[in-house]
Amino acid sequence: MAVGQRARMMEETRAKLIRAARQAFAEKGYAAASMDDLTAAAGLTRGALYHNFGDKKGLLRAVIDQLDAEMVAKARAARDQAETPWLGFLAEGVAYIELALEPEIQRIMLLDGPAVLGDPSQWPGQNACLRTTTETVQALIDAGTVRPLDAEAAARLINGAALNAALWIAASDNPRAVLARAVEAFRHLATGLLEAKG
């Protein structure tokens, strides 16, 4: 078998397992999704799951990585539609918080993910997001939009606020009502970074 064909088959196997796991985790939750059911849904064996992901937890990480990439793309799309870099910064944070209303994201990313994988602020995707937010804050400082301060500290606090708002929404009995409260508070917190115009 040619190396390229083998790599393509391995990637197809991974994609099938991720797709089946994503559906099972969203519908049943991580704990109730059996490895036998999701490998059968993918038309594969447990061996394929172990070979590609190590275990069920490794498969959850892969699903979360996929969801995280989709969330980043949606938040950046909101940013890119804004009229100014500052409004884009706000729109990106609000879009991230609003994604907590999506049932799949609620269940997998915000409820099961932290329960199984630990503190989301330590996940690799969050670290990449922190770097991007730090660069954005620094650019806003350099432009005179945001007051001079430590860009990384501001980025950590903004990202933490957005993540905790999303976790709060996901765990709430009334996510839509919590969303409105969280977004309003997030906007006020972020606005505190603005350079005072005098």
Automatic annotation (TrEMBL):
Residues 34-53 bind DNA. It comes from the Bacteria. PROSITE patterns: HTH_TETR_2. Coiled coil: none annotated. InterPro entries: Homeodomain-like_sf, HTH-type_TetR-like_transc_reg, HTH_TetR, Rv0078-like_C. Keywords: DNA-binding. Residues 11-71 form the HTH tetR-type domain. PANTHER family: HTH-TYPE TRANSCRIPTIONAL REGULATOR RUTR, HTH-TYPE TRANSCRIPTIONAL REGULATOR UIDR. This is TetR/AcrR family transcriptional regulator. The lineage of its organism: Bacteria, Pseudomonadati, Pseudomonadota, Alphaproteobacteria, Acetobacterales.
